[in-house]
Amino acid sequence: MPFKNVLVALTSYAEPTSVASINDATAAAAAMGTHVAALCFEIHIALPGNLVSASLVGDIIADESHKSRDTAQCLLDAFEAAAKRLAVLHERILEKSLIPDASRVLVDYARVHDLTVLPAATPRWIAETIIFAAGRPTLVLPAAPPARAFELGTVAVAWNSSRASARAVADAMPVLKQARQVRVVTVVKADARDSKHSAEELAKSLARHGIDVVLDRVDANGRTVSEVLTDYTQSHDADLLVMGAYGHSRWREFVVGGTTKTLLSKPPLPVLFSH
């Protein structure tokens, strides 16, 4: 069973999502779900109350709001055109929001969708907010133009027997059932949480869901986990990487794990993150 309800998050301010990225994100969402909604914001900027030239600044802010509204409508038009070409059930959502409130509203929408798709060049702070606050999986698309149309041919799963990787597998079950091939990769000696037999037990569990997997153990050989996963997905021509997202709080500042941060900043392929 595919995801039923997929959200595509579009950015209208300050750097709008490109039409090419909208097309790629819509195609990915359509391949993974039966209904796709696109969310975009008309951004409003609050006027500081202590400005001397409040009238002039107010005119500038009003002009920026109008530009944001026009941009958001254009982005939603591009999404709708892409969705119609793909013949997928779709919905367009335009929200009005102040800049500080937009992330909260976006998370609210992500929480009521099965999956959120983030187009290429989505700011990392937006991606981190959704991944760690929504409680739902997030698909992050790479900046490089895709070499072929998005499909669920070979799906790689990064497994280290941690809570985050277990959650990622559970969240990705609709994808794993759709994929033609599933490969589970464990990076050896890179994470103390690795358990010698856990990948084999995972394979047994997935087999009971009708999912046959190929198990691989790759020695890091001094490489970072992100380097190993990048090399692995490229060598096996993977279409998608499934992995847990790691992060923790440190004195009120949320610190993102190194592998997660690297693959979020420059994903080499579509990555489905779960936390």
UniProtKB/TrEMBL annotation:
Family in the record: Belongs to the universal stress protein A family.
Domain of life: Bacteria
Annotated protein name in UniProt: Universal stress protein UspA
Ranges of residues in domain UspA: 187-272
InterPro entries per record: Universal_stress_UspA, UspA
PANTHER family, sorted: STRESS RESPONSE PROTEIN NHAX (PTHR46268), UNIVERSAL STRESS PROTEIN HP_0031 (PTHR46268:SF15)
Source organism (scientific name): Rhodopseudomonas palustris
Pfam annotation, one family: Usp
